UniProtKB/TrEMBL annotation:
It comes from the Eukaryota. SUPFAM superfamilies: NAD(P)-linked oxidoreductase. Residues 28-332 form the NADP-dependent oxidoreductase domain. PROSITE patterns: ALDOKETO_REDUCTASE_2, ALDOKETO_REDUCTASE_3. InterPro entries: AKR, Aldo/ket_reductase_CS, NAD(P)_OxRdtase_dom_sf, NADP_OxRdtase_dom. Signal peptide: none annotated. GO terms for molecular function: oxidoreductase activity. This is Aldo-keto reductase family 1 member A1.
Amino acid sequence: MRRSCWLSQGGGMSRTVMLHTGASMPTIGLGTWQAQDEVELERALEAALDAGYRFIDTAYLYGNEAIVGRAVRRWLDEGKGTREELFISTKLPMMGMRPADVPEFLGASLTNLKLDYVDLYLIHVPFGMLRDGMERIEEIVAGEVGSGALDMDTDHVAIWKAIANVLADEWKLQLSLLTQALEAEVEAGRTRHIGVSNFNERQLARVLDNCTIPPANQQIELHLYLQQPALVAFCLEHGVTVTAYSPLGSPGSTWLNTAGGLQLPDLLGLPEVREIADKYSKKPAQVLLRHIIQKGLLAVPKSTNPDRLRQNIDVYDFELSEEEMRRLDALDRGEDGRIIDMLLIEGVRDHPEYPWVRPVEKNSEEEDGET
């Protein structure tokens, strides 16, 4: 059954979004992608928890779950808060996209995090890799992951739920078993919610149409230049909350300038953003985050700087006008604004579950279809 999701009490100023279970998820979390320096990240986590962050996002592939786990355990052991106050999310890696792999990878994440359960377990990307296809995300950055690492039989419903009696072919049966594997982890209490990341509308619809436990959240790249309004609307219409990663334009991903040949956008320096920031005596990053959460979405900005950490969560004492929201909405560049396209993985564009098609590619495909 598909259903809508909504903000918890407080409307646009709310600090939480309500999930389909009735649980609350903080609208601003701490992103930890590319944060692997042990001392720096532990200090950042301590500063974030002290500043009021209660949502921490990590992933098996980030290679920092153990660091997150130590910092969280210390905070709990010192009596600064309770486990129930926290919302911890992590992700199933692309080389674990088979039903039998789910318990093992989630178990490894729980061991790393020193937790009995996570609040949200996401499928990291919609395409899978062979079990020995890669081990660390740095291999992708270094261009060391070849096309031979891809598992071209990735099947989402198999991760989510078993409905073999209504599925007609082996491909769909495999997908249903993978779906069942994730749902089994909810039933076992090792994760409170399950969700997806980087899925397109078609892929998410397939899961929604074949699940017993619906996705609670979809984490996608989302910022001023890539606002994905159609996908966001589809998610919200069907009760799936949306978390923005790289909400500030991923200014720390300088390696993409050389490895991917991409010029990173300077969203923080845009005149429209700076003008609004000056009006409210806020930082540009606070305006970018406010623009996201005011739409009922969530965001996980990454920072290890204590001052910026505090600024990033200080976004609840001002509200953008409708005209300011429209001005920022108008900066959307669609797929041309995408930063993270995974193309450093050789051959990934040929995977049947590669989720993105740029406008020029789409037009080319349509022309080919006409001839």
